[in-house]
Design a protein that fits this description.
There is one protein chain. This protein has 8 helices and 27 strands. It is an alpha+beta fold. It has 2 domains: 3-196 and 294-366, no CATH class; 200-289, Beta Barrel (Elongation Factor Tu (Ef-tu), domain 3), CATH 2.40.30. Strands 1-6-2-3-10-11 form a 6-stranded mixed sheet, covered by helices on one side. A 6-stranded mixed sheet has the order 5-4-24-23-27-13. Strand 8, helix 4 (139-149) and strand 9 form a beta-alpha-beta unit. The longest helix is centred in the C-terminal third of the chain and has 16 residues, at 292-307. The chain is globular and about 60 Å long. The protein starts with a strand and ends with a strand.
Length: 367
């Protein structure tokens, strides 16, 4: 079973692609996945990677930090090569976020390439990867459309730009796209599984959005009072200090016992903007952070106990988790979790699994 990973820190995109191709020499990959810092020119890095692997489906996105087996990096390119003994079939397409019919067309077309209809794709045999413009604020609508059309799991992340918040890019077969998503449907030959892990405990405090602007992800009121006031009361701090608690005290929509985290982004007078869409009247619980390294170790060990050793892993890890690990000086500890697993990943502007969420790591694992 051939899954290999490599990296380059060469600042020249064509030289970086050459480094990666050299590391993968002797392989004949069916797919090459790469995540590249926004310091790389988007057109050049996508073109360079495709030129090195003309016979593979080559896709990726810009990042706010990269992850490879054993290390968390910055200003690099990380890549994974998967050969035909890993992937039985693959199809990829671009979704134009400005075109509301584009997701449907893409899904129908991809299913046809795989010899199926969208709803006939077997969730035990197929999995989807989605990479989406991290500044589009369109993750929810794209994921909802995909969820309406297929029963398979689709996992992924929102592209980053090293915290500049100016422009993010997704890549497919030599071209770079903004305001777009790359959807890839894969039929692995091996067993696969998914992880969604976050590191929070419940505080038993409910915030009900009562006045919201869903399109801009802005909450003006929780519990019929100004959002900042309600949030401050819930976590027991002064209103002037609330922004400093956003990273450690996000909110979550719960499906049973399963949290789907929505992270506050910034304050606008007494309103709060979020990184995820917030819906009026849908109760949210306030969370308190726990230890990311410990919780991730438990998640990895639990799934290995169920499935056996992991042969390859793709990690879509929230930038807010990366920033928290950096603040706690635990980046090396987090990277070390994956040192014996062929792993690539990146720090995202949002994570996708069933829907769109924040402060989560979503992972695709091959066994």
């Amino acid at each position: 079973m051939t899954i290999q990973v490599t990296q380059s820190v060469n600042p020249d995109p064509f030289a970086a692609a050459t480094d990666i191709a050299t590391s993968f020499s002797g392989l004949k990959p069916v797919a090459v996945i790469f995540f590249a810092s926004s310091c790389y020119d988007p057109t050049n890095i996508s073109q360079a990677m495709k030129e090195k692997f003309p016979d593979a489906t080559v896709f990726g996105c810009s990042t706010s930090g990269e992850l490879i087996s054993g290390k968390m990096l910055k200003h690099s390119v990380v890549a994974m090569a998967l050969e035909s003994d890993v992937i039985a079939d693959i199809a990829a397409d671009v979704i134009d976020i400005s075109d509301r019919k584009s997701p449907s067309r893409a899904i129908i077309g991809l299913a046809e390439k795989l010899g199926s209809k969208p709803l006939d794709l077997d969730p035990d045999k197929y999995v989807g990867i989605i990479l989406i413009d991290g500044l589009s604020c369109a993750e929810e609508q794209v994921m909802e459309k995909i969820g309406d059309m297929v029963n398979i799991s689709v996992i992924g992340g929102s592209a980053g730009d090293d915290l500049a918040f100016k422009k993010t890019w997704v890549y497919l077969d030599g071209k770079a796209y903004d305001n777009s998503a790359i959807l890839v449907l894969i039929k692995p030959k091996s067993r696969f599984d998914l992880i969604k892990t976050q590191s929070f405990s419940r505080m038993n405090k409910i915030l009900t959005p009562t006045l919201v602007d869903e399109a801009s992800r802005k909450v003006m009121e929780f519990n019929d009072i100004p959002a900042v006031t309600a949030y401050a009361e819930a976590i027991g701090v002064d209103e002037k200090d609330v922004a400093s608690y956003f990273m450690t005290h996000p909110v979550a929509l719960f499906a049973g016992e399963e949290p789907f985290v929505r992270s506050p982004q910034r304050i606008d007078e007494r309103s709060i903007y979020f990184y995820c869409q917030i819906r009026k009247g849908v109760d949210l619980e306030v969370l308190s952070s726990t230890d990311i390294v410990t919780d991730t170790n438990i998640a990895i060990k639990t799934i290995e106990k169920k499935n056996g050793p992991i042969k390859g892993l793709i990690n879509f890890n929230c930038i807010l988790r990366t920033l928290q690990l950096d603040k706690e000086k635990k980046n090396d500890e987090y990277g070390a979790i994956f040192q014996n697993i062929p792993t690539i990943g990146f720090s995202t502007y949002g994570e996708e699994y069933i829907g769109h969420m924040n402060q989560t790591a979503t992972m695709l694992l091959f066994f």
